[in-house]
Amino acid sequence: MTPSERSRRLNLQQRSALAGEAAAASADVENALLTPLDPTAAAFFDVDNTVMQGASIFHLARGLYRRQFFTTREIASAAWKQAYFRVAGIEDPEHVAEARASALSFIAGHTTAELEELTEEIFEEGMAHRIWPGTRALAQLHLDEGQRVWLVTAAPIEIASVIARRLGLTGAMGTVAEHVDGVYTGRLVGDLLHGPAKAEAIRALAVREGLDLARCSAYSDSSNDLPMLSLVGDPCAINPDARLRTHARAHGWRVHDYRTGRKAARAGLLGAAAAGAVTGAVAAGVGLRGRRAS
Fold it and tell me: DSSP states of 33-72 as a string?
């Protein structure tokens, strides 16, 4: 490895560590402050294609586009990445690199309060009906056992927090956008919460919350999340890509696929039975006001 390659690798590690620390520090801990029945065990869920069909950032971007946050050309690029994501079922490294370069730049100049309010609307408009009932039921099982449940996602923390709150989960960790005096700068704190950064975030949260990672569970659809999955004692592949499915089978991990046929139907029944009124609450929510951004 050349000095240049070593420097680049170290820089990536530093950005991942910073992103993980920022995500853990920004985690919504309102519910976490309540004493759980099982305080040393927790579950961590990826969001895109694990909890929700498709990419949550795309659904946010589409909702913001309808509110005239950015141009048709910009949303067309996002639509292409979403189509690729859904068809291929994997996260292309090139797309991740592009996302890093431009992530959240479209909210520069807007306030944190404005985005939080709009995200609540957009969740109801384009996300609530995309929640996988089977994954929702798995999260509820952990809650029923007195364990805390966090979302861990490359999506902005604003999206992750809304989804966690609407599903009745403990909290969320996501990509942290820099803001000054409540106004977004368009830059990230560290990097996207992606791949190794998720593992860093979970480590930091485990130290803060006194978790025993050997007793914790983690769920994801993507082989990019192997660092997170390998960190806990109970990893599980949800709607896995080919590489993750192979890895999970080789290591005896649990695998659930809710995407097609009878499996999806069974997942729906399980979700209805286990989630009950909580899932119904997700379908309620706020009314759309069709407000345009200033």
Answer: TS--SSTT-EEEE--BTTTBSS-HHHHHHHHHHHTTSS-H
Are 241 and 221 in contact, with CB atoms under 8 Å apart?
A: yes
Greatest distance between any 2 Cα atoms in the chain: 57
Set 28, 48, 191, 225: catalytic member: 48
CA angle, residues 73, 48, 29, in degrees to nearest 5: 115
- List the Cα angle 160/114/45 in 5-degree steps: 0
Confidence class for position 81, pLDDT limits 50, 70, 90? low
State which H helix or E strand residue 10 sits in: helix 3-26
Q: Which residues contact 220 (CB under 8 A, 6 or more apart)?
A: 45, 46, 50, 228, 229, 237, 238, 244
Indicate if 48 belongs to the active site. yes
Radius of gyration of the chain (CA): 18
Active-site hit among 28, 38, 46, 191: 46
Q: Is 46 tagged catalytic?
A: yes
pLDDT at 94 over 70: no
Residue with tokens 């404005």: 114
Which tens digits make up the pLDDT trace of 182-240? 898 877 777 778 889 999 999 999 999 999 999 999 999 999 999 999 999 999 999 99
